[in-house]
């Protein structure tokens, strides 16, 4: 049963985790799809943004500079590095103008969000008998020609363009001045970086995320509720079994004694002996009382603080408690129990239903005896603190662990002592005691340490 329960919980947790991971995976996939769609849409909207005369002429004037610098390069007046430096300087001087126009164009497209843009140069190659790569000098190098300054990570490519054109330059390197031709290939890439891209995509997914969150929370809630109910059900089952075992056990002894006593009454010798009849009848009477007490206990467990029909009267605390202890001692029969008292010296009035309150005190006193070993010593101490009267019942018995203390006042709860209960009981005494004390607007608590003993405290309001 235990392993079945363990597997049920384990499988439920695994299923729950699997479902959560699938949900997480689906959300992630949706995010990727949405993000790609969003980037594609943005790309489409800004793709032809530089099909613009003003921008064309700016790019052309940079192209003109490139051409001039290549002529110098071809005539060995400058090297590649210088060439690059010069065309970059030219680009920088044109950039403000380019960016202004670009921004204006971007604005007119009313995207509804911000983005950064740049045009990068990926390569510049002079084609001839031997190709001459002006740029890049290192692999994967690129430089910003126009636009904003930002790194390429978290950025997206808008388009890649290649221009291939034929140019001429005047070669002055030999004795003759001749016009030479060359082919130039320039590769550029337009790159954009959408500001707050993640949050925009997440905002677009808000409905899905909220829906998923609600479903997830509902799943957690249902899972938690099911497990709680299952555990509770299991506890109730165990309590039920315990209770049936206990009550059977409790009823067996008096019934067996009753059986022996009544059988005895049928025996001729006993019938002839009035003393023996009296003895048997006392036994029958006592066992009858015991069974009645058990039935009362079971019946009373259906009562709780709200429906205990109290009939309260004004009671003087000390004489009342002395009377209760007197009765209790009478019922102890042969047991050797020392009861010490330490009563609050002044007159204190309480408002009690004597019948019920005595039952509550008897329960605690019974337990103090039941869960102690000889020599048994119980101390009853009363104190007054402002408006509150406290009755402390202290024993030096087996004590109660901190974990058991948490459930001590629950219906049917008994502290498990291995598999066997050394003392008989139904686990109803403390539950009923608490209900009675609560009905008196009071509270009951316990302070205990295993092996050292327990002190049960009843606190009720004073009557003034
Ligand atoms: P019962 O005595 O019929 O089992 P109770 O409700 O009176 O039921 O007590 C519940 C449990 O609390 C007991 O089974 C016992 O284990 C523990 N208990 C109660 N009083 C004491 C005590 N004075 N010392 C140690 N254990 C106690």
From TrEMBL:
Organism: Mesonia ostreae
GO MF term list: kinase activity
Histidine kinase domain residues: 246-464
Positions of transmembrane segments: 205-225
UniProt EC number: 2.7.13.3
Protein name: histidine kinase
Superkingdom: Bacteria
Alphabetized PROSITE patterns for the sequence: HIS_KIN
InterPro entries named among the record's database cross-references: HATPase_C_sf, HATPase_dom, His_kinase_dom, HisK_dim/P_dom, HisK_dim/P_sf, Sig_transdc_His_kin-like_C
Lineage, top ranks: Bacteria, Pseudomonadati, Bacteroidota, Flavobacteriia, Flavobacteriales
């Amino acid at each position: 049963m235990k392993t079945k329960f363990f597997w049920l919980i384990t499988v439920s947790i695994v299923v729950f985790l699997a479902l959560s991971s699938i949900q997480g995976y689906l959300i992630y996939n949706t995010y990727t799809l949405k993000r790609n769609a969003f980037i594609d849409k943005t790309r489409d909207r800004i793709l032809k943004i530089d099909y613009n005369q003003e921008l064309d002429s700016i790019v052309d004037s940079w192209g003109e500079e490139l051409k001039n610098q290549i002529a110098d390069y071809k005539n060995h007046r400058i090297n590649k590095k210088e060439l690059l430096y010069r065309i970059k300087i030219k680009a920088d001087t044109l950039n403000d103008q380019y960016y202004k126009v670009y921004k204006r164009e971007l604005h007119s497209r009313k995207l509804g969000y911000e983005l950064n843009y740049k045009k990068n140069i990926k390569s510049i190659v002079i084609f001839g008998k031997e190709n001459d790569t002006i740029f890049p000098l290192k692999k994967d190098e690129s430089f910003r020609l126009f636009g904003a300054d930002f790194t390429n990570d978290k950025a997206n490519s808008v388009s890649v363009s290649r221009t291939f054109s034929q140019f001429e330059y005047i070669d002055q390197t030999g004795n003759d001045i001749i016009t030479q031709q060359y082919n130039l290939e320039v590769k550029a890439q337009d790159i954009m970086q959408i500001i707050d891209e993640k949050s925009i995509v997440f905002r677009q997914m808000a409905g899905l995320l909220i829906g998923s969150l609600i479903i997830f929370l509902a799943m957690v809630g249902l899972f938690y509720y099911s497990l709680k109910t299952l555990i509770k059900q299991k506890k109730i089952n165990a309590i039920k079994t315990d209770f049936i075992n206990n009550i059977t056990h409790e009823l067996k002894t008096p019934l067996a004694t009753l059986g022996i006593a009544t059988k005895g009454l049928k025996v001729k010798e006993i019938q002839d002996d009035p003393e023996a009849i009296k003895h048997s009848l006392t036994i029958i009477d006592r066992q009858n009382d015991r069974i009645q007490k058990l039935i009362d206990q079971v019946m009373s467990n259906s009562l709780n603080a709200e429906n205990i029909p109290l009939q309260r009267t004004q009671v003087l605390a000390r004489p009342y408690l002395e009377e209760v202890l007197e009765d209790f001692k009478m019922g102890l029969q042969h047991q050797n129990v020392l009861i010490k008292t330490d009563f609050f010296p002044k007159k204190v009035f309480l408002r009690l239903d004597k019948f019920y309150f005595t039952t509550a005190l008897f329960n605690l006193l019974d337990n103090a005896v039941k869960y102690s070993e000889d020599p048994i010593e119980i101390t009853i101490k009363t104190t007054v603190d402002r408006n509150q009267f406290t009755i402390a019942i202290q024993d030096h018995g087996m004590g109660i662990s901190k974990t058991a203390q948490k459930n001590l006042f629950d219906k049917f709860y008994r502290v498990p002592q291995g598999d066997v209960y050394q003392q008989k009981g139904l686990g109803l005494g403390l539950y009923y005691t608490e209900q009675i004390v609560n009905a008196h607007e009071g509270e009951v608590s316990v302070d205990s340490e295993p092996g050292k003993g327990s002190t049960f405290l009843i606190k009720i309001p004073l009557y003034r």
